[in-house]
Amino acid sequence: MWYYKVVVGILLLPWSLILLMAVGAARHRYARKARVIVLSPTPLETAAAMPIGLPEPAPAYSTDLDVSAPQIS
Question: In the chain, where are the structural domains located?
Answer without folding.
Answer: 1-28
